[in-house]
Amino acid sequence: MNTIEDIMCRVKTMIEAIIGTALVQDCELLGGGVLDSLSTIELITSLEVQFGISLSTEDFTHYNFNSIHAICQLVLSKRQSGEAASK
Fold first, then answer.
1. Which CATH number belongs to the domain containing residue 36 in this structure?
2. What total of structural domains would you count in the chain?
3. Cβ–Cβ < 8 Å for 23, 12
4. What is the CB neighbour count within 10 angstroms for residue 47?
5. Which domain holds residue 21?
6. CA–CA distance from 52 to each of 16, 25, 44 (Å)?
7. pLDDT in tens, the chain (87 residues)
8. How far apart are CA 34 and CA 51, in angstroms?
9. What is the pTM of this model?
10. Coil, strand, or helix at residue 43?
């Protein structure tokens, strides 16, 4: 299991690769215009592949994708529910 710090680092690296520039950790990703609709879809695909999770349309909220921390919480939640479902 990855720590929250590891997940945050991986998510930040994914976003930087998608947008092509360095990212300030606490910035608003959607509200600040860092991510647009296409880059958000690319991020969702990367999250599913990298973390072995499945995101539903209910997960695609401004709240869940507006910060690195919120994305990490979503990943952790999905991984925990996936572990519970597989047991």
1. 1.10.1200.10
2. 1
3. yes
4. 24
5. 4-86
6. 20, 23, 11
7. 578 899 999 999 999 999 999 997 678 999 999 999 999 999 999 999 999 999 999 999 999 999 999 999 999 999 988 754 554
8. 22
9. 0.88
10. helix
